[in-house]
Hints:
Arc Repressor Mutant, subunit A; 2 domains; 14% strand
Amino acid sequence: MNPIRVLLVDDHQMLREGLRAILARSEDIEVVGEASNGFEALDLARRLGPDIVVMDVAMPELNGVEATRELVRTMPGIRVVALSTYSDKRYVLSMLAAGAAGYVLKQAAHQELLSAIQATRRGEKFLSPSVAGVVVDGCMHPAERQDSTLGAALGPRERAVLQLLAEGLTSRQIAQKLSISASTVETHRRNISSKLRLHSVAELTKYAVREGLTSLDS
Length: 218
């Protein structure tokens, strides 16, 4: 049987090295590449065609939620295992809503990551036990679920624009990153401000950090 081809995505090199060491325990897994943000992840996934992407949730430039949503939309054969320090409902439900098949906490990765990769390759779901209750709660209270995801008031493209804006990029730079026109970026900015009723970059940045769209310390 061919090994499971894995792409590692995390903005901290030391953590990626640690993940490689964990995955090296299994002869059935081959790490085919590494990326440090969501944009790199999408590019490498297109070029390398991995079976599984181990995706950090909080990253600069394009976070794991938006990268996962785009990856699942454009490359549905690839499965995503989320990797995060956060067990908060917003992060877990956001990644699952984006299409992730698994969610592993970083502090438990040495115990659970191999199992998560093998389970998702079989077409199963895998959740760290400590976050399983969050999903059960979301199923029991579906009316609350929509508002429990990151930046729920905004659309996917608006969240991507807001993250880059909060990280200090200009409209022209955002346009280049997202392959859209600067005028389209400005339209998104106006819509974001209108929806959130926040009009300064400082206010929008505070919102982005509070909602987990960016940490600004990656």
